C-alpha cells in the first residue's frame, strides 16, 4: 500500500499509467467488453484489471494520477450505443461528470461506433477492465502532460 494513491490502482496499472506518454491512449472498458482479446494488440500487450463494479470509480482513480490531453479534440472517446446513436447511457453520463470534475472543465467526449471503438482499443497503450455490468461503461482517454509540477 502506498500513501496518497487510490487503493483501486494496483502495481500493474500504476506501471501502465506511469509508462504511458503524452498522447498515449488508456482504454477503460466494462465487464461485457472483449478486453482480453483486444488487449493483446495494445502496446503493453496485456490486460490490466481494476476491481470495482463501477466505471466512474475506476475513472476517478485513474484521473487522480493521469492528466487528460488538452491539445487534441478527441482526448475522450466513448462507444456510441448500437441502435441508439447519440444517446448517452447512464454509465457514460456518470463517467462524463467524473471527467469534467477531475479536469476542472467541460471535456469534449467523442462517441464512435462499436468497431471504431474496438480499433482504438487495439491501438491503445493499455486496456483496463472494470467489473462494470452496465452496458457501454467504456471510455478511451489520451494522456496529457503536467504543465507545472504538482505541489
Task: Report the end-to-end length measured between terminal Cα atoms.
Answer: 22 Å
Order of helices and strands: HEHEHEHEHEE
Q: Which descriptor suits the 3D outline?
A: globular
What structural class should be given to the helix and strand makeup? alpha/beta
Q: Record the strand order, biggest sheet.
A: 2-5-1-6-3-4
**Could you tell me the strand content as a percent range?**
15-25%
Number of H/I helices: 5
**CATH-assigned fold name:** RbsD-like fold
Look at the structure and give the CATH class: Alpha Beta
Oligomer: single chain
Features:
globular, RbsD/FucU_mutarotase, L-fucose mutarotase, RbsD-like_sf, L-fucose mutarotase activity
Task: Walk me through what this model shows.
The chain is an alpha/beta fold and 151 residues long. The chain has one domain: RbsD-like fold (3-Layer(aba) Sandwich), CATH 3.40.1650.10. The chain is 30% helix and 15% strand. It is built from five helices and six strands. A six-stranded mixed beta sheet has the order 2-5-1-6-3-4. Helix 4 (90-103) links the parallel strand 3 (76-79) and strand 4 (110-112). Helix 3 (55-63) runs parallel beside helix 4 (90-103). The protein is globular and about 45 Å long. The relative contact order is 0.31.
